[in-house]
């Protein structure tokens, strides 16, 4: 009896070892599963966000603080000292692009950067529409001879100072010292625009003064949007 139990135990052990060996062989021959990431199909690119539909009425409310500077005739930036730009009659599309530049740091102005941080994309489109008002209309005619220093400028900004496309700023009637300041920022990297920096880099101080004087004296020109006594005022 003892010998029988011993043989039975050996047979059981051998069977268990054989089963383990078969299981291991099966595991080794089983192909590995492909990583889930590799098996997943690439996701389709997301659709671009729709362009906001500008609401000038809402822009009037949102821009109340903007008019604290841009709504005062002759208002000056404190340091360095230069005139705050006139915006009434400007192209809304350009103003929106400028707001993006201040928000994203492509234009260096700490106050404007701070102001734009609190504005949504819709807010900026609304503010641009309100401040622009009715854009200047091109006459298609030069007012006198275009100075040599401004020959390249008029290809985008127009011989009469009215931009040839809404993505460009109109310069007719803009403050002379503001144009000088803007060109200086393009020239020295305060405004990050590769095309304008290339143009401004080739201008001397005398050229910049000539360009600014030419555009600032063109009429009809940009104007100052008057700041209302109350944002509820019509």
Structural notes for this entry:
With 234 residues, this protein is mostly helical. The chain has a domain at 56-216: Cytochrome c-like domain (Cytochrome Bc1 Complex, Chain D, domain 2). It contains 11 helices and 2 strands. The protein has helices spanning 2-29, 36-39, 56-62, 67-70, 92-104, 110-117, 121-132, 154-157, 176-188, 194-201, 205-216; strands at residues 76-77, 82-83. The chain has a two-stranded antiparallel ribbon with strand order 1-2. Strand 1 (76-77) and strand 2 form a beta hairpin. Helix 9 crosses helix 11. The chain is globular. The termini are far apart. The model is unreliable at 1-40 (pLDDT under 50).
- CATH architecture level-2 label of the domain at 56-216: Orthogonal Bundle
What count of helical segments does DSSP give? 11
In whole angstroms, the N-to-C terminal distance is 114 Å
Helix-residue proportion: 40-55%
Pairing-aware structural class of the strands and helices?
mainly alpha
What would the CATH topology of the domain at 56-216 be? Cytochrome Bc1 Complex, Chain D, domain 2
Mean pLDDT: 84
Q: Which CATH C-level class of the domain at 56-216 is it? A: Mainly Alpha
